[in-house]
Amino acid sequence: MRIVKQSQGGQSVAASPEELELINRHSRRELSAEEVYTFAVRLCDNEVDRDFERFPEETLAELAELFVGRSGIFDHNWSARGQSARIYRTELVHEPERLTRAGDGYCYLKGYAYMVRTQANQDLIAEIEGGIKKEVSVGCAVERAVCSICGQELGKCVHKKGQTYNGELCYASLEGAADAYEFSFVAVPAQRDAGVMKGLGGCEKLAQLVQSHPGCRAELEQLEREARAGRSYLERLRGDVVRLGGLAENGLDVAVLRDIAGKLEERELLELKRVFGGRAEKRFGLKPQLEYKASEKNGPEQDGAFLI
To answer: What residue spans define the domains of the chain?
Structure first.
């Protein structure tokens, strides 16, 4: 799942000897303090954003390592021409006196970036210093979006982001940082400290697409209904496989089987259900109390005891 989040940027940082040592780990030659311009950006935080999603502190800590060495570009245009800066270190900043909507202490991921001073980027540096280039947006990937109400992956449960259940707000916890792509200077003003603009798989969300193309709404709703039905079918199929596997295989750990079934698709699940069902039938199949067997030989002697 690709995530793009908007944030604040533009804090100047002095190029101290310690900072230069970190910067020069990314350069091909030793750069001096006069050659580089350094600044800090707020990349993302753990607040619940307008899409009712948040990075928990654990994910921010994972992203901190992934963002070191990533480029700064413009408007998420992945072109070498657009590379303007590079992150050389990060830190997780805590503000425990400030509580998030989730009820925990606020924290954010801070990135330190450098640029090599050239004739071409003098205007950009001036705009950063003057507060014109202030907003940045980060691109990254996470493994899952977890429902804050039940702990399942969103889409596999009945809860909806932004709705309240027994007084508790439902939001998506973005967990398992998989990759960090870049941070980008953007023209869209920040609306919160972190995260008001996101995308999945490099394109707009379907919901955003519907807003600009209302005619797609009915098709999207139909796709959502079919997707829910498909997920429900797979969950029942996985339950059947686990149940039959427990009956068919003596000593098989049900928890292990449930974990295996959770990773399989329909074709594989159907095959396991067929195999386990056959074995369970052999072990526990019912037999009638009376069995009727056709006589191998029909003749008078068969009824001889009743003849007078």
So the answer is: 2-202, 216-284
